[in-house]
């Protein structure tokens, strides 16, 4: 017992150390700096680091359109937690980020072959990040046309049988697209009840289905002042005859959990409390989801999975949307959202993306990579299209 | 017989004229036959139509080292429905204008980078490209790059340029997509603020929907009358997610349901893979978060997917020509007919809700919408990997990290043992005594994981 208290004490020290390391709601560059300027003059500048739980974490993400001022979008962005739940409930949900980790030794060393036509970047002596520039097709076409490009930063983490890719795409026009790729091998291939999986093995054995909840943490720090951001919810409500829709914009005044609702086209934007685009718009970024079709997956009725998105005020100890270290801190995002003011604050957006995977024969040796992505889209960040 | 015919026949038999092996179902000029770097092959015919623009037919997929089989007999865009939030317009772009004829653009080489332009009566209307698609799979230190065949055209309707695109992956996945770029079509003064977004002083961009519909006439394995459609739903309770597949026996109109994690699949009732599972394609509508059920006079918007019996006069999701007794839209195509042993058609849709932003003027960057068709049990295992099946685990170990290929010397003692680098500041040179305490603590901390896979 004494043994245990000693170790717990050590844990407390370590936790404090961790908290101190994270207490940076300012301009601190976490890790190495990186920048990319496209031929068009569009530029992305950011810092990246490998953290044990999250894997690649980005910070101080700045975007600059051609002939426009450079502005910060995010203080930090990470996959804060990956919760995985098996269909048969044979295992209580796992929290892969904090219980195993996307970083540390799980973060894979990449070879030149893994990064064809790209550039490898090293952390702690290992190549772990692949940078590539890709054509992204039409940027626009109207009378004239323009072909666009994107910058991609990708890493791989092997966690148990599964292999996850964290992929960040930065478009020339200011759009940021984080993605999680699921691959590797099926984690359970000898289950008994086909209602909880699919008989994909040659032997007739059943692989268990599972749901991955990707819980992203997006610490918005628009432009130079992190502490004056505002969250707006925008809805378009149909009339009773459903012929017209009427827009409404509501400022979310206090911390809260919210969900997408196709019927009223609900979405959110994070806008700067002060800055405008020089025209009638206020600088903002909006969240564009994907994967709505599995978005109410929550077989254990967990509070932290009860909403698509949570908005909270920045707290250094609130690092993981679920399975957060609870020393003087909430255990998950539903506890982080406890009614504090959000108006003109340092806002953190927690976005959940759920994907249920029903194994198929094609997965029986290698899971073909399944991507789940979403976008952060500039809204009135510029007065007009900068291109 | 003319000697040249002889020579021709010899060349043909010896495979020196590859283009002539091909086109069983169309003229060679309209035949696309692409083998991707991983040796998967897609071949199909295309056809220009005034309304649908480029329609694809006889779409065959040959997995790397596998059997060539038909997936789709015909596939086309079936409507782009664009109602504006203030009801100023409710366009049915495909039927009221059309993606083909004068609306389809002549493409320039710079719009088809590293690709091939295909022409229709002297006009380059289709771009054929092979594009990398990032990882096909990744496991431990084995990674496979995937590729896709892409076919797209561009159609100008009003201020919009639509980009119908079909992507065919080397693992059999088909991703129909639609891009929209150009310029905003409709603006208003500030009085229209409740229906749009201010772009400049006195100029409001009016919000609107794009309801995209595709008509997908599957013929899995090439036989039209033996396909069946299932809906897959899940019941969630007590930490469990219980699957239930329901096969449709009659025509159906259905919608996504994020509570039941709903999806669909079309399967062949005769052909199986070596595991005795029917070959099939999953049909997923992931980008349905802006789905829209419109007014009662647009009943075809009520549902996201419709399953009907193939009728040659049923071409468009709405404004379908109702001459010769044909129904007018999807809501009446799906009128309860039996589909068992029939040629089944899947009408899939997805919606993009466009609340304009300042960046949409003067030119609007492309926004994209997609649906996904993914092979299920079409192959025996991953068609791009020769690896043996995943071994069944006899125990249920924790998610153990792999041995790192390069281990920095200063962390070797603890990091490899724990595999949980986050427990301590790695770059600190922790004294040995602390390390042993950590190990002891970790031993307790990770006990629960012995039950975990």
Automatic annotation (TrEMBL), chain A:
Record's keyword terms, sorted: Copper, Metal-binding, Oxidoreductase, Plasmid, Signal, TPQ
Co-factor note (free text): Contains 1 topaquinone per subunit.
InterPro entries associated with the record: Cu_amine_oxidase (IPR000269), Cu_amine_oxidase_C (IPR015798), Cu_amine_oxidase_C_sf (IPR036460)
Modifications made to the protein after synthesis: Topaquinone (TPQ) is generated by copper-dependent autoxidation of a specific tyrosyl residue.
The EC number(s) this enzyme carries: 1.4.3.-
GO molecular function, one term: copper ion binding
Copper amine oxidase catalytic domain segment(s): 42-386
Cofactors: Cu cation
Primary enzyme class: oxidoreductase
GO biological process: amine metabolic process
Signal peptide extent: 1-23
Coiled-coil region list: none
Entry keyword ATP-binding: no
A UniProt-annotated Pfam family: Cu_amine_oxid
Family classification: Belongs to the copper/topaquinone oxidase family.
Quaternary structure (record): Homodimer.
PANTHER family xref list: COPPER AMINE OXIDASE (PTHR10638), COPPER AMINE OXIDASE 1-RELATED (PTHR10638:SF86)
Protein name in UniProt: Amine oxidase
Origin species: Thiothrix fructosivorans
From TrEMBL, chain B:
Region (Disordered): 379-403
Single GO biological process annotation from the record: amine metabolic process
Protein name: Amine oxidase
Names of the cofactor(s): Cu cation
Keywords per UniProt: Copper, Metal-binding, Oxidoreductase, Plasmid, Signal, TPQ
Residues modified as 2',4',5'-topaquinone: 160
Post-translational modification: Topaquinone (TPQ) is generated by copper-dependent autoxidation of a specific tyrosyl residue.
Known EC number: 1.4.3.-
């Amino acid at each position: 017992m004494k043994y245990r208290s000693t170790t717990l004490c050590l844990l407390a020290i370590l936790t404090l150390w961790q908290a101190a390391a994270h207490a940076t709601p300012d301009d601190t560059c976490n890790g190495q700096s990186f920048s990319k300027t496209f031929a068009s003059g569009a530029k992305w500048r950011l810092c990246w680091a490998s953290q044990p739980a999250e894997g690649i974490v980005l910070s101080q993400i700045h975007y600059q359109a051609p002939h426009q001022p450079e502005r910060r979008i995010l203080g930090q962005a990470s996959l804060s937690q990956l919760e995985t739940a098996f269909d048969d409930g044979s295992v209580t949900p796992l929290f892969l980020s904090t219980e195993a980790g996307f970083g540390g030794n799980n973060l894979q060393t990449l070879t030149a072959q893994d990064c064809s036509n790209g550039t490898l970047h090293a952390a702690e002596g290992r190549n772990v990040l692949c940078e590539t520039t890709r054509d992204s097709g039409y940027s626009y076409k109207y009378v004239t046309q323009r072909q666009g490009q994107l910058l991609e930063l990708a890493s791989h983490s092997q966690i148990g049988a599964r292999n996850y890719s964290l992929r960040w795409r930065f478009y020339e026009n200011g759009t940021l697209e984080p993605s999680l790729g699921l691959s590797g091998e099926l984690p359970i291939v000898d289950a008994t009840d086909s209602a909880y999986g699919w008989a994909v093995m040659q032997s007739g054995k059943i692989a268990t289905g599972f749901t991955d909840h990707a819980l992203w943490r997006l610490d918005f720090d628009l432009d130079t002042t992190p502490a004056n951001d505002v969250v707006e919810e925008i809805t378009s409500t149909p009339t009773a005859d459903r012929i017209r829709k009427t827009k409404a914009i509501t400022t979310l005044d206090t911390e809260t959990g919210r969900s997408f609702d196709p019927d009223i086209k609900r979405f959110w934007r994070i806008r700067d409390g002060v800055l405008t685009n020089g025209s009638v718009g206020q600088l903002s970024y909006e969240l564009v989801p994907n994967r709505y079709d599995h978005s109410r997956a929550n077989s254990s009725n967990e509070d932290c999975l009860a909403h698509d998105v949570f908005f909270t005020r920045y707290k250094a100890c609130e690092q993981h949307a679920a399975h957060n270290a609870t020393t003087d801190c909430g255990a998950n995002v539903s506890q982080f959202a406890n009614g504090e003011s959000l108006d003109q604050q340092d806002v953190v957006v927690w976005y959940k993306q759920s994907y249920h995977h029903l194994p198929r024969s094609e997965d029986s040796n290698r899971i073909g990579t399944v991507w789940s992505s979403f976008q952060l889209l500039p809204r009135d960040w510029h007065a007009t299209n900068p291109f | 017989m003319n000697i040249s015919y002889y020579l021709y026949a010899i060349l043909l038999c010896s495979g020196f004229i590859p283009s002539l092996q091909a086109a069983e179902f169309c003229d060679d000029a309209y035949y696309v036959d692409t083998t991707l770097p991983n040796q998967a092959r897609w071949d199909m015919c295309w056809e220009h139509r005034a309304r649908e623009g480029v329609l694809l037919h006889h779409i065959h997929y040959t997995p790397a080292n596998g059997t060539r089989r038909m997936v789709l007999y015909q596939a086309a865009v079936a409507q782009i429905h664009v109602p504006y939030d203030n009801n100023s317009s409710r366009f049915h772009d495909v039927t009221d204008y059309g993606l083909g004829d004068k609306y389809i653009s002549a493409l320039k080489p710079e719009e088809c980078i590293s690709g091939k332009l295909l022409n229709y009566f002297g006009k380059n209307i289709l771009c054929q490209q092979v594009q990398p698609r990032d990882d096909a799979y990744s496991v431990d230190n084995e990674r496979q790059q995937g590729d896709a065949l892409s076919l797209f055209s561009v159609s100008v309707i009003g201020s919009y340029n639509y980009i119908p695109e079909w992507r065919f992956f080397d693992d059999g996945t088909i991703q129909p997509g639609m891009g929209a770029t150009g310029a905003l079509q409709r603006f208003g003064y500030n009085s229209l603020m409740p229906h749009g977004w201010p772009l400049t002083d006195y100029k409001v961009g009016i919000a609107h929907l794009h309801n995209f519909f595709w008509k997908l006439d599957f013929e899995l394995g090439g036989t039209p009358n033996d396909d069946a459609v299932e809906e897959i739903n899940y019941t969630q309770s007590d930490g469990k997610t219980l699957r239930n597949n329901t096969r449709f026996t009659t025509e159906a109109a259905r919608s996504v349901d994020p509570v039941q994690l709903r999806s669909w699949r079309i399967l062949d009732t005769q052909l199986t893979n070596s595991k005795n599972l029917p070959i099939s394609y999953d049909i997923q509508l992931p980008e349905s978060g802006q789905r829209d059920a419109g007014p009662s006079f647009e009943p075809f918007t009520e549902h996201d997917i419709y399953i009907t019996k193939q009728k040659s006069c049923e071409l468009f999701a709405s404004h379908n020509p109702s001459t010769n007794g044909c129904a007018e839209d999807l809501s009446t195509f799906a009128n309860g007919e039996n589909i068992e042993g029939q040629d089944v058609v899947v009408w899939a849709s997805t919606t993009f809700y466009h609340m304009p932003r300042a960046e949409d003027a003067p030119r609007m960057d492309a926004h994209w919408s997609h649906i996904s068709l993914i092979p299920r049990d079409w192959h025996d295992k991953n068609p791009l990997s020769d690896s043996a099946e995943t071994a069944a685990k006899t125990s249920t170990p924790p998610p153990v990290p792999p041995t790192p290929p390069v281990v920095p010397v200063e962390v070797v003692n603890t990091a490899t043992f724990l595999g949980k680098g986050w427990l301590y500041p790695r770059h600190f040179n922790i004294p040995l005594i602390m390390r042993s305490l950590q190990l002891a603590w970790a031993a307790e901390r990770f006990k629960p994981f012995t039950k975990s896979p």
